[in-house]
Amino acid sequence: MSKYFLLDTMDTMDTLTGIVNQALDCIGKGIMIQDINRRVVFFNHACEEITKWSRAEVIGKDCGDIFLCHTSTGMCLTEKFCPGMEIFHGGLSQGSRELLIRRGDGTESWVKMSVSPLKTPGGKVTHLVSVIEDISDIKRFSDEVLRSKTLSTLGAFAAELAHEVKNPLNAMNIQMTVLEREIHDIKKLGDRAKKELLDVVTIVQKELHRLSGFVEECLHFSKTGELNKSSVHVGDLLSEIVSLLLPQAQLQGIQIEFVIKNALPEIMIDRDKIKQAILNILINGIE
C-alpha cells in the first residue's frame, strides 16, 4: 500500500468528518458526544445556544463538572442518577431525563437529555450521544397550569367550607343573643349569678365573632379580591401569554397565530388577574 493511497484515504476521512460536523451543526437540537470517561469530544452549535457554554469551554472536560446537573430540589444528578453513567454501567440501553443545568451565563435552565450509546461491532460501549432540548418554556407553562388549577381548587374549597360553616355560626350567634336577653329577664337570679352567666355569653360571642371573621376571609379568598390596577400595555401582556402557551400548544399539534393589526393602548387593569383569566381560557381550549 503506497503512502499516496494512505494520504488520499486520510484526506477523504478528514473531508467526511468535516461534512458530518457541519451537518450536526445544522441540527436544531443539541448534540453532545462523550467518551467513556464522560469527557466531551463533540459539542454542536445548538448545544452552545441552549447551554450558553462555548465549544472551547466544554471540549475535553467532564460534562458533570460543567453542567452540575441537578433536580429542582437541588439533588445532584452528576453521578448516581446520570443516564450516561447508567448506560456505561450496563443499567440502561438508553436513557432520557429532565435536568436542571448550570449555564455558561450563570443562569439555570431545564433541559431534556436523551442519551444513546455508540458501540463497537463486539458490543462494547465507546461513546455516548446525547440529544439536548431546552424545555424551560414547557416547564414554565406547566408551572402556570399547576398554579392556576391549585388556586382554582383552593378557592372552590374555601367557598364551600365557608358557606357550610357560616350558617351554623349565624344560628349560634342568634341563640347567644336570645340567651343574653333571657338572663337579663330572669328575676330569680342575683346580680352576681347574672354577671357570671353574662361573662360566659360574652366570651362565646367573641369567639363566634372571630370565627365569623375567618369565614369572611375564606369567602374573600374564593372571590376575585381587591384589584391591584396598574397601567398595562395590552400587546405586551398578550405576547407574554402566547409565549407561555406556544410550546405546550405545539406539543398538542395546535398552532397559535398571534396578530395585532393596530397598536393597542395601555389600560388600567389588574395585570395578574387578567393574565390568569386569559391563561385559564386558553389552557382549557388546548386541553
Automatic annotation (TrEMBL):
Does the record carry Kinase as a key word?
A: yes
| UniProt entry tagged with the keyword Oxidoreductase | no
UniProt domain PAC: residue ranges: 95-147
State the EC number(s): 2.7.13.3
For this protein, the record's InterPro entries field holds: HATPase_C_sf (IPR036890), His_kinase_dom (IPR005467), HisK_dim/P_dom (IPR003661), HisK_dim/P_sf (IPR036097), PAC (IPR001610), PAS (IPR000014), PAS-assoc_C (IPR000700), PAS-like_dom_sf (IPR035965)
Task: Spell out the PROSITE patterns in the cross-references.
Answer: HIS_KIN, PAC, PAS
Q: Which SMART domains match?
A: HisKA, PAC
Keywords from UniProt, A to Z, are: ATP-binding, Kinase, Nucleotide-binding, Phosphoprotein, Transferase, Two-component regulatory system
The record places domain PAS at 22-61
Q: Which reaction does it catalyse?
A: ATP + protein L-histidine = ADP + protein N-phospho-L-histidine
State the Gene Ontology terms under molecular function.
Answer: ATP binding; phosphorelay sensor kinase activity
* Histidine kinase domain span: 160-287
Q: Which CDD domains does the annotation name?
A: HisKA, PAS
NCBIfam families reported for this sequence = sensory_box (TIGR00229)
The protein in question is named histidine kinase
Q: Could you tell me which species this protein originates from?
A: Candidatus Brocadia fulgida
